Amino acid sequence: MKTQVRLRRVYEGPSPEDGVRVLVDRVWPRGLTKAAVHLDEWVKDIAPSTQLRRWYGHQPERYTEFRRRYLIELRDAQPAATIDRLRKLARTGPVTLLTATKDVEHSQAAVLIEVLRDDRTVQEPAPDGAGAAPLARLVNAGRPQHRDSREARA
């Protein structure tokens, strides 16, 4: 069954077609109360890291590299589990991802839409930015476990 995922700005009013409304930003949107958002879920763990978000700064010329780095972050266990859960939810009915960003086409939410609609894996663009690389593996499959930096120093 095809996933039913769509993307909207959190500042737009809810629609009957939204289904489950999921905020995918790490930071709560300015000027909104939780009641005004009509939110079903807030998944901070799927948002880009603070470091990546600050580096990107919503500069469209950095989007390709942002997308590549963000897809790497999404392979970590917690975001990957959230992606799987959202995919399953989207197979049962509509899911609307909500973001506060003004430029939704160059946002983490746009990357998440791609990932959620592709049941196979999290993909990343080729190093030259010319498009998606071939699918190498499922999320986290065969991935080496990274040791904590404190353990590496011990």
TrEMBL record:
Biased composition (Basic and acidic residues): 145-154
Domain of life: Bacteria
InterPro entries linked: YeaO-like (IPR052552)
Disordered: annotated segments: 123-154
Composition bias, Low complexity: 125-136
Xref: Pfam families: DUF488-N3i
Protein name: DUF488 domain-containing protein
